[in-house]
């Protein structure tokens, strides 16, 4: 099964099936593949599958897995063909037989390690840039909320101060004592007028 093959080979297989024909693809009946325009291939295709755009690194990986150059299928000067006996278009299950070489030089190993570190650094820088953008957006949102609250402040309901409420109750109790139903009506009316006058004076 393809899923048991090394990840590089799985990505390579998927890439060849989706790659635009003007950049290359399977050839020789599916027993090899062609890269017609290495520069455009590295710029447009490699980043989608391998997170880098270095054609030399891609070729080095092919060499590590035992790929060799095959016969060209076009007259394009930049065209390059690669093949491996177990890398076949219609037989993806054969890929699990391909093993990465372990006797490559320390120089090549160190080169891969440096590239891996560089890739991690690029990822970290992208994350930092994203966080910086989010922080700026958060500050802008805080400013919008602050301005909005300032504009709404005059419209917010404010209950009367407790002292005014207490004075009002005392005035009502003083000017409107309890009385029976047969009290003189004019006296009650006088109390009402005085109460309203005092109420107005308290809140001027």
UniProtKB/TrEMBL annotation:
GO terms for molecular function: DNA-binding transcription factor activity; sequence-specific DNA binding. It is found in: Nucleus. Pfam families: HSF_DNA-bind (PF00447). Its main location: nucleus. Keywords: Coiled coil, DNA-binding, Nucleus. InterPro entries: HSF_DNA-bd (IPR000232), WH-like_DNA-bd_sf (IPR036388), WH_DNA-bd_sf (IPR036390). Residues 110-144 form a coiled coil. GO terms for cellular component: nucleus. SMART domains: HSF. Residues 4-101 form the HSF-type DNA-binding domain. Belongs to the HSF family. This is HSF-type DNA-binding domain-containing protein.
């Amino acid at each position: 099964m393809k899923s048991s093959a090394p990840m590089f080979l799985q990505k390579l297989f998927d890439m060849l099936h989706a790659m635009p024909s003007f950049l290359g693809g399977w050839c020789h009946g599916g027993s090899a593949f062609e890269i017609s325009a290495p520069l455009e291939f590295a710029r447009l295709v490699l980043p989608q599958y391998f997170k880098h755009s270095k054609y030399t690194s891609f070729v080095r990986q092919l060499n590590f897995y035992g790929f060799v150059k095959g016969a060209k299928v076009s007259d394009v000067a930049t065209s390059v063909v690669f093949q491996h006996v177990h890398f076949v278009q219609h037989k993806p299950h054969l890929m699990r037989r391909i093993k990465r070489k372990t006797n490559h030089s320390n120089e090549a190993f160190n080169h891969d390690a440096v590239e891996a570190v560089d890739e991690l650094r690029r990822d970290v820088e992208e994350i930092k840039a994203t966080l910086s953008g989010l922080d700026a957006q958060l500050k802008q949102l805080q400013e919008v909320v602050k301005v909005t609250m300032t504009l709404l402040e005059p419209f917010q309901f404010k209950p009367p101060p407790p002292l005014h409420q207490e004075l009002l109750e005392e005035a009502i109790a003083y000017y409107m004592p309890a009385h029976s139903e047969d009290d003189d009506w004019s006296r009650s009316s006088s109390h009402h007028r005085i109460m309203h006058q005092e109420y107005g004076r308290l809140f001027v």
